[in-house]
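so my prof wants the structure for this chain in the tokens format not the other one, which i didnt know existed until like an hour ago. anyway here's the sequence
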Amino acid sequence: MGDLQDQQFLHSKLGTPWSDGTEGVTQCPILPGETFIYKFVVDRAGTYLYHGHYGMQRAAGLYGSIIVSLPEGVSEPFSYDYDHNIILSDWYHASTNEQAAGLSAIPFVFVGEPQSLLIYGRGKYNCSLSTASGIAAGVCNTTNPECSPYSLTVVPGKTYRLRIGSLTSLSALSFEIEGHDMTVVEADGNYVEPFAIRNLYIYSGETYSVLVKADQDSSRNYWATINVVARKPATPTGLAIFNYYPNHPQKQPPTVPTTGPLWNDTTSRLAQSLAFKARQGFINTPPVTSDRVIVLLNTQNKIDGHFKWSLNNLSLILPQTPYLIALRENLTDAFVQDPPPDGYDFANYDIHSVAKNVNATSSNRIYRLRFNSTVDVILQNANSMTVNNSETHPWHLHGHDFWVLGYGTGKYNLSRDWRKYNVVNPIMKNTAPLHPYGWTALRFRADNPGVWAFHCHVESHFYMGMGVVFEEGIEKGGELPSSIRGCGESEGHHRP
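here's what i got, hopefully its the right format
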């Protein structure tokens, strides 16, 4: 199978849902040797990401960023001298096919922690382990210039906008620049009420813009680092050099690289999530109430001996015929028509313990939303199948931005926790974290005709079924292009 790219940005797919790039949801996979052209309207400035969306292709490096500039004559609500783009990622020596095979195997073989963390594609690895990892002799050569850390050159006294995006396949990260404060000004293409930080927590699928002033001792260079948080680290710190001109770009800083915050400090990560607010003058006020509330209990489960992730005890398995095609052509046997549940057993489920019955069910059922309705999604975290373990899940919604109404700890209370919502100036995003043993409340307008994936952005978790699908206004779209066909019941209508 070939490449699929997920343009996870803008409202660009409004009117062109087949340009979302999600295999099994909006189109068939692109086969080897084929060409597929995504066409969409770019309607908002900001920092966005794209990546492969077939199997676990993103973990193999099929990703990038797209920067959308403001229209001529329009300026940002903040000032800076220079603009830099930085992609953060993690890297495995095992191929994505090997990783996927392990996830599907009995006994289960998890992908484990990555071997390296990358800043702009460059990272480090303990070369003493190279023989055990099967790396060819001479490849692991620290004297090779290609193995040098990424270097970001700055002019003393100038202010820099760093557009930082994370496309890790597993790791949540903390990013910091030694000795420098950062001011957050943008999140997923939306302006943030500025606030200062020393380290930025960033989860897979998120983008941020931060302002950094080169105002420290210019006779030396400084470390820029990324460290794993939310999982016990087993990966070396990712390093880059914050290079003060005219020092040599690869001049090593005289200090030890920063190790970042404690990996299990959930409190500080939750506090930073709560700190994000929409910038004054750019607030898109959400509807005060919603038309529908969907609570999704995030659990780790087993199905016929296979390890899975589930929502309300259903683990997503995508159909052979993409939902968009099946719904538009009324192919009712392409997937199960019964709706999935809007909630779970709130009163009796203990989120702090391994479930008494961990078995779940595979499902390709979808949520049918009334067009233009306002929908609340409450993500509820729980214990995994490991005692005293609840993982962090970055949730990404295709085709929309959502208002992040709030975060909380413990079990969400339907009768009172809605009172904690920020409906005055909530930030809008397309990706938001679900913290351990906590909840995240999101609100969005079902105003983009099509079928949209909503899933955990951890590559292995989505592969193991951690996602749902929303349909809205399916009858309102234009004629489907033949280029998205060629699989399942659309096989007879394959693109030329």
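also thought this was worth mentioning. The chain has four helices and 26 strands.
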